[in-house]
Amino acid sequence: MESRAIAFIEGSHPTGTHAVFDLDRLAFAQGSTQFLPGSREQLHSVAAIMRAYPDVTLRIEGYGDNVGAPGPNLKLSQQRANTVKHALEVAGIPSHRMKAEPGGVRNRRIAVEITSPSSR
């Protein structure tokens, strides 16, 4: 995911677009906002990219579990997005560069929509 995100940011994409990437190595325990082991490595990579490209913004979409009632899962998806945003803030990324939103139900994942300066 990281190499594709950098390629997008550096301009190998059509102007006027954005790109969505799944954080493929970041996952949560079922029914929880707790990261599974190994997830923090990808968070650190995303933070490093954000620091290297200070004009890039992220829309973070959290996803709930694919089991259980829709209402609690929607709430969980927002909480997961908030957890990722908070972790990136702790890593030094300013809050105004990120927006956390619920994405729905999709196997405890996070997706990010990247907007680079040339596509705004």
Overview of the structural elements:
The chain is an alpha+beta fold and 120 residues long. It is 36% helix and 22% strand. Strands 1-4-2-3 form a 4-stranded mixed sheet.
Compose a concise summary of this entry.
With 120 residues, the chain is of the alpha+beta class. It contains 3 helices and 4 strands.
Keyword list:
globular; 3 helices; alpha+beta; 4-stranded mixed β-sheet; 120 residues
Count of distinct strands: 4
Mean pLDDT: 90
Cross-sheet strand order for the largest sheet: 1-4-2-3
C-alpha-based Rg, rounded: 14 Å
> What is the general shape?
globular
Helices, strands, pairings?
Elements: H1 2-9, E1 19-22, H2 39-52, E2 57-64, H3 70-90, E3 98-105, E4 110-115
Parallel strand pairs: 2-3
Antiparallel strand pairs: 1-4, 2-4
